[in-house]
Each structure stands twice: as structure tokens, then as C-alpha cells.
Design goal:
The complex is a heterodimer. By secondary structure, chain A is mostly beta strands. Chain A has no helices and eleven strands. In chain A, strands 2, 4, 5, 9, 10 and 11 form a six-stranded mixed β-sheet that branches. Chain A is globular. Helix content of chain B is 0%, strand content 54%. Chain B has strands spanning 5-7, 10-13, 19-24, 31-38, 42-50, 53-57, 64-68, 74-78, 87-94, 102-103, 107-111. Classes of the chains: A mainly beta, B mainly beta. Chain A binds chain B through residues 31-32, 34, 36, 42-46, 49, 89, 91, 93, 95-106, and chain B through 31, 33, 35, 42-45, 48, 50, 55-56, 58, 90, 92, 94, 97-106.
Chain lengths: 113, 112
């Protein structure tokens, strides 16, 4: 089955710096890749997603890139702010398998002010 | 539009008991998926229901089951609870297959 690896497990950056989180998936049939942000004690929130027919997608300070050949995708956060501190999860799903999401282990992002 | 609602928020049960958790999806969403979140195993897929039918199933024992009603509300049941079942159980609703999935606040289950 699909396996998603996520790195790093923790990431500390200074406010205003950029943060990059990387994920690798195993099943080349995966074609939908969402990213979730989970603050302590709260639900995971979808922050951005990308489908396999697109190489990059941006939403204000957040961007996601996808390299299908290498089977990896990355989350980029620019101009980080203290409120970006949270756990970030990447996920992958395969067309024809409904909404089964396989998640990475998560990255704890700390933005120091 | 109301978000995904899970009840109850917290539960404490004894080993061997059974428990039922409820999830009301966003209005118009027909797919409900369930996930178990633990510090050690992360977010793991349990199962997905779409139009009252189980469409996908994860690698959990048969003690974990679910169902979906005609109004898309879903329940999951865990029988013969074990200490290791202590976790945050999250449900997510989507309109169709491979659509954006929105999570509920979760039910925190503690087995003692």
C-alpha cells in the first residue's frame, strides 16, 4: 500500500524566515496531495492541496510543489509568523480509492519571535 | 455552513466495554472518513463511507466498525475496548471522491 514519509520531524525558524517541509510517497498512482495544519488541541485544517496534473500551487505565503518523477512534494511557507507554529501533515490519496488519505508522520514547526 | 460535528468530545471507558462515536458531516457532503490519531502512530485511516456503503477500509481489527445513515451522518463503534484504543478519533467529510476533506474536532477516547 501507499506509504508517505515526511521530513523533518521538527523545524525551528526565526520569524520572517522561510520553512520547507518535504514528503515522499511510494505509490505512483497517488494523484492528490493535501497539507493539513493542526494546532494544539484542535482539528487538522486543510491549508493547501495539489493534484498530479499541476506542478506548483500558491496561496499567499504558502506554496506546494510536486515532482511526480521523484514522487515527492513540498510545502513552502514564506515570511513565517508565530501563528504558523503548529504540526503540519502531508497526505496522499489514489484516484479510484475514494477519500482514503495516507498521512505523513507530521512536522512540528516552531516560529521563534 | 456548519462544519463537521463530532459527539461526544470526550469519553472515558473501561477495558472490555464498547463505544459508539458520532459524526455529522457538512451539509451536502456524502463521504465520511474516520481516522485514529495517536502520538505513536500518527493519523491512520480506519474506513470511509459514501452513500451508506463502506467504500474503503484500513488495517484495523474487526472490533472497529462503522455505518452511515441516509442523511450522511456516520457512527463508528469499537467493541471490546483495549488500552491501546485510547486515541483521538477524527472524522472528515468530503463532497465526493478525492475532494477536499474537512475534519471534525474529534472525540478523545480514554480506555482505563
Amino acid at each position: 500500500g501507499e506509504n508517505v514519509e515526511q521530513h523533518p520531524s521538527t523545524l525551528s525558524v526565526q520569524e520572517g524566515d522561510s520553512a520547507v517541509i518535504k514528503c515522499t510517497y511510494s505509490d505512483s498512482a497517488s494523484n492528490y496531495f493535501p497539507w493539513y495544519k493542526q494546532e494544539l488541541g484542535k482539528r487538522p485544517q486543510l491549508i493547501i492541496d495539489i493534484r498530479s496534473n499541476v506542478g506548483e500551487k500558491k496561496d499567499q505565503r504558502i506554496a506546494v510543489t510536486l515532482n511526480k518523477t521523484a514522487k515527492h512534494f513540498s510545502l513552502h511557507i514564506t515570511e513565517t509568523q508565530p501563528e504558523d507554529s503548529a504540526v503540519y501533515f502531508c497526505a496522499a490519496s489514489i484516484s479510484g480509492y475514494g477519500n482514503k488519505l495516507v498521512f505523513g508522520a507530521g512536522t512540528i514547526l516552531r516560529v521563534k519571535s | 455552513k456548519a462544519g463537521v460535528t463530532q459527539t461526544p468530545r470526550y469519553l472515558i471507558k473501561t477495558r472490555g466495554q464498547q463505544v459508539t462515536l458520532s459524526c455529522s458531516p457538512i451539509s451536502g457532503h456524502r463521504s465520511v472518513s474516520w481516522y485514529q490519531q495517536t502520538p505513536g502512530q500518527g493519523l491512520q485511516f480506519l474506513f470511509e463511507y459514501f452513500s451508506e456503503t463502506q467504500r474503503n477500509k484500513g488495517n484495523f481489527p474487526g472490533r472497529f466498525s462503522g455505518r452511515q445513515f441516509s442523511n450522511s451522518r456516520s457512527e463508528m463503534n469499537v467493541s471490546t475496548l483495549e488500552l491501546g484504543d485510547s486515541a483521538l478519533y477524527l472524522c472528515a467529510s468530503s463532497q465526493t471522491g478525492q475532494a477536499e476533506a474537512f475534519f471534525g474536532q474529534g472525540t478523545r477516547l480514554t480506555v482505563v
